[in-house]
Amino acid sequence: MRLSTTLFFSVSLFLGTTHAATAEQWRKRTIYQLVTDRFALANGTSTNSTCDTSTRAYCGGSWRGVIDQLDYIQQLGFDAVWISPAAENIEVNEATKASAGEAYLGYWTGNSTSNNARFGSTSDLTALSDAIHARNMYLMLDITVNNLATANPPNSSAATAPHTTASSDGAQEFHPLCSINDYDNQTQVEQCWVPADGVQTSGGANGTNATVTAGVWFPDVNTDEALVVSEVLAASKAAVKQSGADGVRIGSVKHIGQDFWPGFRNAVGVFTLGEVMNDTVEYLEPYTAPGALDAIFDYPTYHALRAAFATPSGNLSALIDIVTQAQKAYEGGLFLTASFLENHDTPRFANSTSELALVMNAMVWPFIHDGIPVLYYGQEQGFSGGAPPANHEPMWTSHYNPNRLFAQNVRGLNAARKGAMATNHFFLTTPMEFITQSTSGALAVSKPPLLALLTNAGSSSKGGSWAAKRLYKANETLVDVLTCRRFWADAAGGVDVKIVGGMPQVSLYGTCSGWGLRSKRPAIGLDISSTVATDSIICLLA
């Protein structure tokens, strides 16, 4: 098996159409991330189908299933959909399935000359792309560039082990096997293999001379070779063209040298959003340089956000500091980052705390952040799975209920963001600012015309308020988009708002006409899976 022949796409195989949305166009969108295998079953399949996440096996979700649920995604207010990688993944034997599971996430790329039949046919993928674009929504395709996958042990001489081969032109297509023992050593990070999954051995004393019996390994593509780079770029371009994607999400960006990414961005010709897993602004800063990727995930703020709202003792100052640092350090500030609270790699936030008020506050953050909001499927349904694979729950168990408490909040936040863009043409280029508060645990974020009033005090908090001076016109009418409660600025244009039950408020100025939102704040004591009655969706904003 060779990278240049069977593993990567031949550009001539596909006749798809590329939808080249720009970074500026993507900034206006909000992204709904889904795991294709876990989001929706094909039409006619029972939603009572079992899916035991602990087995790490395929559960039957498909591209046709996603098509059937686009109404739901759009009803929540999202206008971009991020799907799992589409390339064919490796199939494994029973021993490896028992130790490592199956490739249901889509990241075990084995044969990129065809799509993953587990998700459907190529025509199904095309139909999904067409259905998304018919709704004026964008499609984001997840792709894997850094590595391929094999169930053959590294010492295998099998012809199907990609790392044992070189191309006909003599290029070494994969880096030699080595482990990443020091993530501060960038050479190791870029040239060694990411950790294998589910490796099992037998025989040998204390592992000595043991025989590897199962596992999945990830041969590291040698992007130091110019010929290999040209093959990878052609493959990536073909994948985008075949799917009709408007943008791509790329994982493991830090595992490839930074000089690779400008050429990649130019080759694919669509919006590029990179995952650079690190919690420091200093590490991410070079990846925002001009000509690099269009955008990156804001991991430093993600870590600070979760820590700040996980408990009433969370450090809000650390969150403020990391945002301020990133705004100054990143090229273009935080405007071309993706803001998120959850994803497929980490435990659900509701797994960290069962406190409704804390979860509600944390969920507001991506929508008032300077970057592009991303919501991981099931978050709006109150899913609370722990570390992978527990956080890859089957979405069909929720019955796609749009009236869940969190789902209604998400709908309101999406509507508020769109309203802010319509009201202030500079909304997307106005940096968020923090207004100092005297109440402990209170956080006020101004991004005109939005004002987010957050707190990590929790539902048992007693008293306190948010205060902001001279933000509005004298006596201007304001509306909290999460409750539809109206209040007014004072004669000097300031506000003083009481904290009620530790719940957040997101305010816009305006009257009541235009968008459907919840009319009442949920009673304190509801849990994260509570449902809001449909007839309460009556509050409308201008």
Short précis:
Residues 33-417 form the Glycosyl hydrolase family 13 catalytic domain. By secondary structure, the chain is an alpha/beta fold. 25% of the residues lie in helices and 17% in strands.
Can you walk through the features of this model?
The structure is a single chain. The protein has 542 residues and is α/β, with parallel strands linked by helices. It has a domain at 433-515: Immunoglobulin-like, CATH 2.60.40.1180. It has 15 helices and 20 strands. The strands form five sheets. The chain has an eight-stranded parallel barrel, surrounded by four helices. β8, α10 (261-268) and β9 (271-274) form a beta-alpha-beta unit. The longest helix has 19 residues, at 405-423.
